[in-house]
DNA sequence: CTTCTGACA
DNA sequence: TGTCAGGA
């Protein structure tokens, strides 16, 4: 049950393939890396190499963006998710607890970013 | 030909 | 975010 996870973690896809698989531009993919959302491996020639897990993460980020979240919002989601994951090792929250916390956080952040994006549009920006 | 970094009419 | 430069 570890074999698949290992293979899914192997970085074997160049950015060009990732572009086709995620429908994101190279600019966006590199930008998300700057934002520390998806850090790909590098090959001998300094080329970015992505794994299947990276693809999933990128698609996930793409979905959040489509739902109206901004970089700050997405970072908060993952920060929260990581915090819960670590807390879950020391203490023991149920999966339901974690999901509720993540859901509440998502709603809060989602509302804020949408609000600010709308205000920008209303101000002609 | 493909990707990389840095920069901005 | 797009896009161009200049190099690998």
Automatic annotation (TrEMBL):
<dbReference type="InterPro" id="IPR000551">
    <property type="entry name" value="MerR-type_HTH_dom"/>
</dbReference>
<feature type="domain" description="HTH merR-type">
    <location>
        <begin position="12"/>
        <end position="80"/>
    </location>
</feature>
<dbReference type="InterPro" id="IPR009061">
    <property type="entry name" value="DNA-bd_dom_put_sf"/>
</dbReference>
<protein>
    <submittedName>
        <fullName>MerR family transcriptional regulator</fullName>
    </submittedName>
</protein>
<keyword id="KW-0804">Transcription</keyword>
<keyword id="KW-0238">DNA-binding</keyword>
<keyword id="KW-0805">Transcription regulation</keyword>
<dbReference type="InterPro" id="IPR047057">
    <property type="entry name" value="MerR_fam"/>
</dbReference>
<dbReference type="Pfam" id="PF13411">
    <property type="entry name" value="MerR_1"/>
</dbReference>
<keyword id="KW-0678">Repressor</keyword>
């Amino acid at each position: 049950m570890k074999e698949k996870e290992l293979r899914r973690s192997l970085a074997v896809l160049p950015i060009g393939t990732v572009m086709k698989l995620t429908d994101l531009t190279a600019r966006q993919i590199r930008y998300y890396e700057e934002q520390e959302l998806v850090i790909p491996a590098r090959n001998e020639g300094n080329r970015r190499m992505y794994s299947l897990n990276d693809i999933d993460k990128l698609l996930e980020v793409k979905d959040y963006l489509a739902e109206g979240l901004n970089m700050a919002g997405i970072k908060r989601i993952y920060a929260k998710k990581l915090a819960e994951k670590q807390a879950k090792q020391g203490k023991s929250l149920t999966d339901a607890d974690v999901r509720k916390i993540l859901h509440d956080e998502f709603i809060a952040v989602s509302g804020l970013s949408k609000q600010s994006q709308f205000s920008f549009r209303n101000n002609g920006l």
